[in-house]
Amino acid sequence: MTHPAPFSLRRFATGEAGAVTVEFVILFPLLIMLLMMAFELGMVNMRHMMLSRATDLAVRDVRIGVGAVPDFETFRSEICEKAMIIPNCKNVIRIEMNSLKRDKWTTVNGAARCVNKIEEIKPETEFVHGEENELMLIRVCALFDPVFPTSGLGRRLPTDAEGRYGVVVTSGFVNEPDA
């Protein structure tokens, strides 16, 4: 008498039916994860590039000495107008402008302070206009929600208490003397 169980197991182990399904089950999630991470990285880079471009364009007139140095609200409005892809821009960016001493070369202390929505928003942190021939440092920080916060790169980004990551842009210029 033959035993059907071992024969069935041997036939199942040597059979090739369903081999593509196993490969699909293993590789499809990896491919989707790779595509999600690529999209997340593209969004991070695009947001950083647009914030950097907007900051440089807003600082440009100040660098070349055209007109007066804008106040905080005007400067923030210019950045938000030129950085077109930042949602709710005026509420998620924070701007710091400080003068640096060239003879002592002291840098701005600590990391850039981004807007923390848990606390009350203080629109103006430090916005010192500086004097003639003074070296100025501008830091702009914006907070964004990851596109895919629970997978891949979105899970690995350093975030605040609300799960948003910060993009920081730094720019510098020297105040031109009045002619």
Structure commentary:
The protein is α+β, with helices and mostly antiparallel strands and 179 residues long. It has one domain. It has helices spanning 4-14, 19-64, 72-82, 89-92, 153-156, and strands spanning 93-100, 126-127, 135-144, 165-174. A 4-stranded mixed sheet has the order 2-1-3-4. Helix 2 (19-64) packs across helix 3 (72-82).
Radius of gyration (CA) equals: 27 Å
Q: What general outline do the C-alpha atoms trace? A: rod-shaped
Q: Number of helical segments? A: 5
Please state roughly what percent of the residues sit in beta strands, choosing from under 5%, 5-15%, 15-25%, 25-35%, 35-45% or over 45%: 15-25%
Strand order, largest beta sheet: 2-1-3-4
Report low-confidence residues grouped into runs of 5 or more: 116-125
Helix content: 40-55%
User: What is the rounded distance between the termini?
Assistant: 109 Å
- Most strands sheet: 4 strands, mixed
Computed structural class: alpha+beta
Number of strands: 4
Q: How many structural domains?
A: 1
Mean of pLDDT? 78
**SSE succession:** HHHHEEEHE
